[in-house]
Automatic annotation (TrEMBL):
Keyword Oxidoreductase in record: yes
GO terms (BP aspect): dTDP-rhamnose biosynthetic process
Gene3D superfamilies given in the database record: NAD(P)-binding Rossmann-like Domain (3.40.50.720), UDP-galactose 4-epimerase, domain 1 (3.90.25.10)
GO molecular function, one term: dTDP-4-dehydrorhamnose reductase activity
Record function comment: Catalyzes the reduction of dTDP-6-deoxy-L-lyxo-4-hexulose to yield dTDP-L-rhamnose.
Domain of life: Bacteria
Family stated for the protein in its record: Belongs to the dTDP-4-dehydrorhamnose reductase family.
Keywords: NADP, Oxidoreductase
Protein name: dTDP-4-dehydrorhamnose reductase
Organism of origin: Berkelbacteria bacterium GW2011_GWA1_36_9
Amino acid sequence: MKKEVLIVGGSSMVGSRFTELNRDHFTFEVPTENELNLLDMQSVNRVVGNSPVSTVVNFAAFTNVGKAEEEKGNKDGLAYKLNAKAVEGLARACKDSGKRLVHISTEYVFDGMKKHGLYKESDKQSPINWYGRTKYDGEELVQGSGCAYTIARISMPYRARFPAKPDLARTFLSMLRSGQEISGCIDVINTPTLIDDLTHGLKLVIDHEIDGIIHLSSEDGISPFLFAKAITEKFGLDGNLVKPIAFNVFCEGRPAPLLKNSGLDTSKFQGLFGRGILHTVNGGLENFKQQMLY
């Protein structure tokens, strides 16, 4: 019998792909934004409380880092309401109805200052911008709610097709195909992740009801400069269009502080489920290429 799962944020870039790839594995309940208003606790309690599912997965979030920074310090702003207050309400509704909450979070709960290696689940959180703070508070509220939970942190998700929202891989590819130059940071570590890998990993996390925090991202890290270079190599484009830039120069004039090291360590996931489910950056880009070409 297939596990029943309630999807919150089913129209999002990650959530829509998760449901698309796992329709044969789970029985999904995917309420629309009109059916489930996350900012209305009566709506949340009604939908979650009346649902027969055992697990709720929350993909909904305010993810625009720059726009979130415009609301810095405002707990009545939309970013904080969606990423913290609504998450608290969702967690309480799950506790009251005996459901497990799987909450999607981000690398932005860290400060990006780690000198060696990628961020582990146990590393100290210290967000440096308002988006990160809202997501950090959301995590804390889930953990303090008393519900059964998994917090799955993801990093720089990308997919072959999703017109409603750009991502780093498709943005770089579009610019390079049109002959535009790209300034890629050479002294930054990211773990950009093909969303298909995230969905496969998340499926296992849900099936096995993994407690606590777990990281889902590519197996290794890469700089934006080398990521853009890898895209030129995969798609036969001009690598000379990719220009190096230092992180401190790139950050000048940006609306929000950015992370120099935003990479997530997936050793915990690999220890549980083995390697090869979450691919390397190169492996993810190879699958991305195949999907883009066919």
